[in-house]
Design a protein that fits this description.
Helix content is about 80%, strand content about 0%. It has ten helices and no strands. The longest helix is centred in the middle third of the chain and has 23 residues, at about 120-140. It is an all-alpha fold.
Length: about 210
């Protein structure tokens, strides 16, 4: 249906907007047409001006690349997605680890100091920020980069702390459990998975389960 609409719009000389092109990309991605999906997403990027929406599109492209096990392209697209939001991916350096630990500390303290969760545009930004960090952590996992996986996991905890109970929190805890398991901390991994399942149950979201 969407393809027919796109063809008729082309015949009528109507230029599709960013949202419509993104929908075309989503449909192509869900039906396994990866190349076509990336083409639609890139066309959507050319028309999209909102930074949050651009970050979502780039994250979608990164997910497609990881699905093809192209971890280099996936990591590059994730870095571009973070840049849209004014962030950068962690690096393999002492300073980057210091920054990551500071972010983790604030993520730990925030729920104790700030009871209110973000809403509106801030909520949307933190949702996609957490999603990108989780995806970048998964990319690092497939690259067998434990330090990268750890840093991205820890950095995802601050946006999920701002969000409160959410699908993003469940995803972040699941990746954290994988990090703990790779570090041979099975008890920590089990605890994190248990907390993730508890939040998923609270949300009542079968997709999250």
């Amino acid at each position: 249906f969407l393809s027919q609409a796109a063809e008729r719009a082309k015949q009528a000389g109507i230029v599709p907007d960013a949202a419509f092109l993104r929908q075309l990309g989503d449909v192509a991605a869900h039906t396994g047409r990866v190349g076509e999906a990336i083409t639609h997403f890139e066309a959507s990027l050319a028309r999209e001006t909102d930074a949050i929406e651009r970050a979502k599109i780039r994250n979608g492209i990164a997910r497609l690349y990881l699905g093809q096990l192209d971890t280099v392209a996936s990591a590059q697209e994730s870095a571009r997605a973070l840049a849209e939001l004014g962030h950068r991916p962690p690096r393999a350096s002492v300073w980057s680890m210091v920054v990551t630990l500071w972010i983790w500390l604030w993520a730990f303290l925030r729920p104790r100091l700030v009871r209110r969760h973000v809403s509106g545009r801030k909520q949307k930004k933190n949702q996609i920020l957490a999603t990108i960090y989780v995806h970048t952590g998964l990319t690092a996992y497939f690259q067998m980069n434990r330090v990268g996986m750890l840093q991205n996991c820890l950095r995802s905890l601050l946006p999920v702390a701002r969000l409160g109970p959410s699908r993003e929190l469940v995803d972040s805890y699941a990746v954290a459990a994988a990090v703990a398991a790779s570090a041979k901390r099975p008890n920590t991994a089990d605890r994190l998975l248990g907390e993730a399942l508890q939040v998923a149950g609270t949300l009542g979201d079968p997709v999250t389960f």
